[in-house]
Amino acid sequence: MKIRSKCGRSRIKGILDGLYFDTRTQRGKGTAFERLVRQFLLTDPRYAERFDEVWMWSDWPERGARPDRGIDLVARERETGELCAVQCKFYDPDTGVITKGDVDSFLAESGTGEFTSRLFVSTTEHWNSAAEETVSRQAIPVSRIGLEDLFNSTIDWDSFSLETPEVMVRTGGKSLREHQKRALDTVTAGLSTADRGKLIMACGTGKTFTSLRIAEAMAGSGGRVLFLVPSIALLSQTLMEWSAESEVPLRSFAVCSDTKVGKGRKRTSLSEDISVVDLAIPATTDGAALADRLARRPAPVHGTAPMTVVFSTYQSIDAVAQAQKLGAPGFDLVICDEAHRTTGATVAGTDESAFVRVHNDDYIHASKRLYMTATPRIYDDSTKARAGQKNAILASMDDVETYGEELFRLGSRTRDHLRNCTYRAELKT
Predict the structure, then answer these.
(1) What is the enclosing helix (H) or strand (E) of 379?
(2) Nearest to 410 by CA among 174, 173, 177
(3) 38 is in which domain, residue-wise?
(4) Where in the numbering of this chain does the Helicase ATP-binding domain appear (predicted)?
(5) In CATH, what number is assigned to the domain containing residue 415?
(6) Which of helix, strand or coil describes residue 212?
C-alpha cells in the first residue's frame, strides 16, 4: 500500500501506511481505523457541529445483543437526536475498490428505520459503478468520506497518534488579509444602508473566505444565511471552507439534487459536478422537510447559538422558496456566488430561469442580498434595446435596482484591474 503524499499530507500518509503494515490482525486494524474515524467525526467542524455523540458499535447503548453486521459507529444528530449509521472500510487506497457487496450488508442493517442517515468512510476513492448506483438511490441518504476528505480536513495529523486516538486537534484557522479586510469593512458598511450590493473579486483573492466573515458580521450567532452556487461541487467546497474557518458555529443545510447518479466519484475536470453522496451533510429538495428543520430552535454548539446556513444550488432554489411558503423564516443575508450566472433575459409570458428568481424578494424573503463574482456580466445597449422590443426583462449587473451598487472591487494580482465582459444575448420569442 502506498498513499501519495502531497501538500504537506505526509503525516496522515504515515499514519495509514503504518497501520496497513502493522502486525496487528486485520480486525485489529479495522478497529483502530474505526477509532480514528470516531474522533474525526467529533473533531472536524463539518461533523462536530452536526453530531454531539459518536459511539463505537460495541458501546452504543441501544445495541442490545445485536452482532456486528456492518455498522461500525453510531452518531447522534445534535439538533434532532436522530441517528446516523457509519461504516468504516480500511482498504489499500491504490488497489482497493468498493463494490456493491461491500455496501449491501451495511445498507440492509441500517435501513430498518432506526437511522435517518448513513455515512460510509473508506481509505480508497475507487468505487465500481454498481456500488455508486446503489448508494445514490437510497431512500435513507448515504454520504461518504474518502481519503481526500481526510487529507483536506482541518485535522492536525502531525499531532495525532493511533495509540491515543481520542487526542485529535484542529490546525489553526486563517486570518483576513488586508484586501479581504477592506472588502469586509466596505461591504458591511454599504449593506448597512442598502439592501443589495455587488462584491467583485478576482479568482484566487479569497471571495469564499471573505464572504464567510461578511456573513458572520451581518448575520452571526442565531442569524440565517442563504448561500447560492451553480453546482454541487461549489456547494461542497463552500461548505468545507465555511465549516473549517467559521468563528461562529454553523448549522448547515444542503439543498440540491443529484445529476451524477452512477457516473463515478472522480471528476476529470473542475467543470464537472460531483454527486450529493460526496457532500458532508445529507441533501434535500423537499421544501416541507426543509421548512420543518428551519422552524426548529437551533441546538447550541458549545454553548453558542449557531448561524443557520442553507447552502443551495440555484437549480434547486424552488425548494427554499417552498420552505418559506410553509413558514420558514426569511434570511438575514443571501449571498449569490458566481453572480454573473444570475443575469439573462426573461421573455414576457415565460417562466423565469432558476438563476434569476433570487432577485425577487416575493420569491425569496431576505433582508440583504450580496452578489459575488470575478466577472460581472453587463449587456450592451443593443441587447438591452432588443430586450425591450421583445417585451423581455433583462437582468444585467449594471442594473442598480436589481444588483445594487458595486460595494468593493479587487482585480487579479497579475492585472492592474478587472475588466468587465460585455455580452450579447439572443432573445427568442
Answers:
(1) strand 377-379
(2) 177
(3) 10-159
(4) 188-394
(5) 3.40.50.300
(6) helix
300 shares its domain with 233: yes
Q: Is residue 165 a part of any domain in this protein?
A: no
b or e along 47-86 (b: 16 or more beta carbons within 10 Å of the residue's beta carbon)? bbbbbeebbbbeebeeeeeeeeebbbbbbbbbbeeebbbb
Complete DSSP assignment for 121-138? EES---B-HHHHHHHHT-
> Count of domains in the chain?
2
Residues 148 and 208 in one domain: no
For residue 224, which amino acid is it? R
CA atoms within 13 A on the CB side of 95: 3
Do 15 and 107 fall into the same domain? yes
State the residue for C-alpha cell 496497513.
Answer: 20
Predicted structure pTM score: 0.87
Bridge partners for 229 per DSSP: 313
Residues 83 and 17 in one domain: yes
Q: Are 93 and 1 in contact (CB under 8 A)?
A: yes
Residue 4, domain member (yes or no): no
**For residues 252 and 239, is the Cβ–Cβ distance under 8 A?**
yes
One-letter amino acid of 93: P
Q: Per-residue pLDDT for the chain (429 aa), expressed as one digit of tens each?
A: 444 344 436 788 788 888 888 767 888 889 999 999 999 999 999 999 999 999 999 999 999 888 888 999 999 999 999 999 999 999 887 888 999 999 999 999 999 889 999 999 999 889 999 999 999 999 999 999 998 899 889 999 999 999 999 999 999 889 999 999 999 999 999 999 999 999 999 999 999 999 999 999 999 999 999 999 999 999 999 999 999 999 999 999 999 987 543 344 444 343 456 889 999 999 999 999 999 999 998 988 888 999 999 999 999 999 999 999 999 999 999 999 999 999 877 655 455 688 999 999 999 999 999 999 999 888 776 776 676 656 566 788 998 999 999 999 997 653 344 344 444 444 444
Distances in Å between the alpha carbon of 60 and those of 54, 55, 75, 84? 9, 5, 9, 12
Which residues touch 66 (CB under 8 Å, ≥6 apart)? none
Do 277 and 139 lie in one domain? The reply is no
Whether residue 233 contacts residue 274, with contact meaning beta carbons closer than 8 Å, is answered with yes
1 belongs to a structural domain: no
Phi (first) and psi of residue 208, to 5 degrees: -65, -45
Question: Using only C-alpha atoms, what is the Rg of the chain?
Answer: 23
In a domain, 164, yes or no: no
